[in-house]
Amino acid sequence: MNDYLSLLLGIASAGVGGELFVRGAVGLAHWARISPGIIGATVAAFATSSPELSVSVNSALVGSPKIALGDALGSNVVNIALILALALVISGIQSPRDSIKRDFPVALLVPVVTGVLFLDGILSSADGALMLSLFLAWLAAAVVEARKQRSSAENVLGVRHHWVALMSGVVGLVFLVAAGDLIVAGARGIAISFGIDEFIIGATIVAVGTSAPELATTVIAKLRGHDEVALGTILGSNIFNGLLIIGIAATIHPIVVSWREVTVTLVFGLLALAVSWPPRSGFIERRRGILLLALYAVYLASILQGQAA
């Protein structure tokens, strides 16, 4: 019963935290004179990826980095094929030009780099350091873009009281982190009680649980008309998960896993990004969301069938 209560409390916390965090993120973006998209891809993405970071560090420290790998790769599929899909079903999303140039290519590169590094069956500490270097290069590009936007802005836009936006963001973040922890604890407890394999738990239930902050932030941002925050949070979170979080886990403890184990999540991660890639106009249509949801259903069936075999 406690697991079910934890799950319900986590969902409620995600809703409250998402609303407060989106308000704070948009307010800070206006005050700092940079686009909400960059705030979404950096600050919001880092904040909403904190549950995955916690799972990654803890599992690596106890010598079980495969949990971190399954969670991070599974969360990346969830982010695009489920969360972005739900946002698109609400209505189409106009992708900012800087996201198309900077975030989409790097997000697409993440599963490719991961797959190449896993060809020898191990993600070593050196591989982890390489992934962290790629992450820092992307982050530096985002910071440079933010500085350009700030220097070209003539006026401070939006909220006058930036401290209100800051407090809203911090309180929202606390709720989001709590939501991730509660949902993961509840979902994992329920799954174990039904005798579900731990690998499946990591790649599906825990991945969905740790993606609860992204889900709340993205959907609420979309409902409030802040498409840049919604898309930026999803793409940034995938980059954080794929490069920073897996990189940290591998640096702490090398990850030994067969190519077959990671193939499904890597392939579906690539397919989901390919389906969501914006056209020349930058507008991602609603029908892409329906296609992504169908892709997520196939992903779940594939991973469950693979474990059954």
UniProtKB/TrEMBL annotation:
In terms of domain of life, where is this protein from? Bacteria
**Domain (Sodium/calcium exchanger membrane region) ranges:** 5-142, 170-302
Q: Where are the transmembrane segments?
A: 73-92, 104-122, 128-144, 164-187, 199-217, 229-252, 258-277, 289-308
For this UniProt entry, what is the primary localization, expressed as one broad class?
Answer: membrane
Q: Does the keyword rRNA processing apply?
A: no
Task: Read off the InterPro entries from this record.
Answer: K/Na/Ca-exchanger (IPR004481), NaCa_Exmemb (IPR004837), NCX_ion-bd_dom_sf (IPR044880)
UniProt subcellular location: Membrane
UniProt keyword list: Membrane, Transmembrane, Transmembrane helix
**Which Pfam families does the UniProt entry name for this protein?**
Na_Ca_ex
Q: Is Membrane one of the keywords UniProt gives this record? A: yes
Q: What's the protein's topology in the membrane?
A: Multi-pass membrane protein
The entry's protein name is Sodium:calcium antiporter
* Species per Swiss-Prot/TrEMBL record: Aromatoleum diolicum
